[in-house]
Amino acid sequence: MAEDSGELADVLTSEARVVEIRTAMTARSHFLAASFWGRVQLGVGGLAAVLSAIAGASALSSLEGRNIIAGTLALAVTTLTAVSTFLNPNDRANAHLRAGNAYLALEDAQGSSTGSSSAPGRQPGSSPGL
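Below the sequence we write its predicted C-alpha cells.
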C-alpha cells in the first residue's frame, strides 16, 4: 500500500511539473502576443497618419486657406478613429497581458505547492522582460 502511495505521489509530481512547464510556455506566448499588438498599434497608427496626410493633401489641394486645415484634420481624425476602432489593438494587448499574468500566477501557485522552482531565468512573482 505504501508503494502505491509513493508511486501515486511520483505520478502527481510529474504531472504537476508538466503543468508548470505548459503554463510558463503559455504565459510567454501571451506576453509575445501582447508585444505584437502593441507594435501593431504603433505601426497602424503611424501608417494611418501618413496616409491621411497624403489623402488630405490630394483631396484638399483645390481648397484655400482655413478650409484646407479643417478638411485635413477632419480626414485624419476619421481615418485614425476607423482604424483604431476596427483593430482595437490596445484592448488586445491588455487581454494578452492579463492572460499571461494569470498563467504566471498559476505557475507560481503550482510551483509553491510542489516546492519546485519556477521557469528558468524567472523569479516567482516576476514577469518576463519584453
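The helical segments are 2-59, 66-87, 89-114.
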